[in-house]
Every structure is written in structure tokens, then in C-alpha cells.
Amino acid sequence: MSATIISGVEIAKAIREELKGEVAELKEKHGIVPGLVTILVGSDPGSVSYVTAKGKTAHALGLYSEQIDLPAETDEEELLGLIDKYNKDDKIHGILVQLPLPKHINEGRVLYAIDPNKDVDGFHPVNVGKMVLGEQCFLPCTPHGILEMLTRSGIETSGKEVVILGRSNIVGKPMANLMLQKRPAGNATITLCHTRTKDTDFHTKRADILIAAVGVPNLVKADQVKDGVVIIDVGVNRIGMSKSGKAILAGDVEFDSVKEKASFITPVPGGVGPMTITMLMKNTVQSAKQVAGLL
């Protein structure tokens, strides 16, 4: 047996086509162009790459977008003032401050300063609270993308044993919360493993669906999972450079061995990664729809 590959590239492409139609309708019927601003402080290579990709995607979908690049020495008050400016800007429906921030800036204070109605990353405590309660809100982009991958791949989650490796606020915790809710791609029984979990293998071997988000390359091996497991690999780990200077990436799951036991598996790259940016665009369109009174 060899697993069916869940292509984040293909699923993201389908969602983006849907979003193009929604953006066109908002323009034609309501005179609204969804607007996104991305704010980058410093020049971390990974952050620069992500922000650039977000801008290109927004443009391709017909969104209005602005990219603000600030030097690493920018002080916190200046950044907060910029956020306040965009909170009040009617052209902007989504504000994204690229993380991580320089150490002299309080990340929590910055994220809390974003208007919850423009928090398209889904990190503001108002949106986190609404997510926990199952109310309409902006869902964090990576977990939201995983839900779409499961749903569009026809993978049943109701009553399944879902094991999540990693308890970050960005992936692990929201993923666990969303999958236990009474919702599509939900109603699952959740186990959340972390660095203090005793006998992690005991849990991974029971998983019907295993979501790995720990940032350790090739951590999960074939002997740690059961036959027929669904694997969602969130890890993106740089393990070297090719002769052409391109980064060589590996997931948290040892792909070649595990795919022989799994029923479905996401690759790295080309799995969860493309979904994250796409769901950011989806949240921005959702924000514009809320302004138009359509949600």
C-alpha cells in the first residue's frame, strides 16, 4: 500500500479560483475591493519570503494590497501607531504583522492592538475566544487550511482518534480545539502531545489521523504509526542546500517510509504550506464580506 498524496498546491488552487469569483462579485455588486496590508519589521529571510508570497497572491486574486517594510530597529510605539492607522483605514480589511518580531518589541501588545475585525491571522484573543466558543470568527490560517484539506479529500473525522504533536498557539492548540467541535472536519477525539508527554509512541500508534507540528525533521517514523493512518505534516525544516542554492526541506514525518503505511499523507513541500497563505486570503475576503453586511 502507498498513500494517496494530499496536494496542498491543488487544493489551494481550487480555493483561490473560488475566491477570485467572490472578489469579482464584491467589486461588481457592492463596490468593495478586499484590502490587505502586511507589515514586516526587519529582514529575516523566511519572513521576507512569506510576505512577498502573500503580496503576490493577493494581487493575483484581485485584492488591494500594501506591503510595509520597516527596519529592525523600529520602536514599538511606531509600529503600534502604524497599526492604529490601518485600523481606521476603510480600504483595509485585513492587517497582518509578520512574526517573529525583533526582541525589543512586545509581540502580544502588537497583536492585541490589531482591530479584531481586521485580524485575518486569527491571533487576537477576541477571535481566539470566539473560535473556542464555536462562533463565527477568523480562524488561524494553518489549522483552517488543514480542515479544508481533510474536508476536500473526503477524510472522515467524526469519532476518529486524532493525535496532534505540538502545542503551539499557531497550530497545535487551535487545531485541537477545532477538531473536537461539532463542525465539518470535527467531532473527533483529540490527544495533544508535547515535550513532556510520556510514551508519545503509545499515542501515535493509536492515531487514525496524525498531525505533526513540532519542527523536528523526520521525527515520526513508520514504526510509530498504524496501517491506514492519515498524516498531516505541518513541519517545514531546512536540512541543507542544493547545488543550485535552493533550500532542501523536510517535514516532521519521514515521508518515504511512512507513506507506505498511511492511507493519505501531505508532502513537504507542497502540502500544508500553500494552504496557509490561501486561508489568509480567504479570511481577508471574509472580512470584506462582513463590512458589506453579507455575513
Provide an overview of this structure.
β9 and β10 form a beta hairpin. With 295 residues, this protein is of the alpha/beta class. The chain has a 6-stranded parallel beta sheet. Strands 3-2-4 form a 3-stranded parallel beta sheet, sandwiched between helices. It has a two-stranded antiparallel sheet with strand order 9-10. 40% of the residues lie in helices and 17% in strands. The longest helix is centred in the N-terminal third of the chain and has 23 residues, at 8-30. The protein has helices at residues 8-30, 45-61, 76-87, 107-113, 125-133, 141-152, 172-180, 200-204, 255-258, 273-291; strands at 4-5, 35-41, 64-70, 94-97, 161-165, 189-193, 209-212, 230-233, 237-241, 247-250, 264-265. The model has no long low-confidence stretch (mean pLDDT 95). The protein has 2 domains: 30-116, Leucine Dehydrogenase, chain A, domain 1 (Rossmann fold); 141-273, NAD(P)-binding Rossmann-like Domain (Rossmann fold, 3-Layer(aba) Sandwich).
Give me the secondary-structure topology.
Layout: E1 4-5, H1 8-30, E2 35-41, H2 45-61, E3 64-70, H3 76-87, E4 94-97, H4 107-113, H5 125-133, H6 141-152, E5 161-165, H7 172-180, E6 189-193, H8 200-204, E7 209-212, E8 230-233, E9 237-241, E10 247-250, H9 255-258, E11 264-265, H10 273-291
Parallel strand pairs: 1-11, 2-3, 2-4, 5-6, 5-7, 7-8, 8-11
Antiparallel strand pairs: 9-10
Helix pairs in contact: 1-10, 2-10, 6-7, 6-10
